Amino acid sequence: MKRFVEAKVSFEGIHSWANAPEDVYFLRSPHRHVFTVIARKEVCHNDRDVEFIMLGRKIKDLIEAIWPQQRPGYGAFELGSTSCEMIAERLVNDLGLSECAVYEDMENGGIIRMD
To answer: Is this structure's pTM higher than 0.90?
Structure first.
């Protein structure tokens, strides 16, 4: 049996994809999303081996440390060309997560899973 805790964090971000295919050319320009991070971390027991509220705070702190906001305290984080998959991979590596999914507007996203 495996056990996991899960934390869910949302934030506004602006990014773009310079090499977007012609069918989705509009992604080449900076555009806003509400990004949702769903992070899982494996735990060893059922008594809050990792406290999920604290895990959520660590995710928020790391996002704030890596990507600046356009207007601190307000608005969206400026992600440049960072994709959902890139955000998830960074969080997995820096926080020792088992899995991380990052979604744009809870519609489409990417998942990184440690095996």
So the answer is: yes
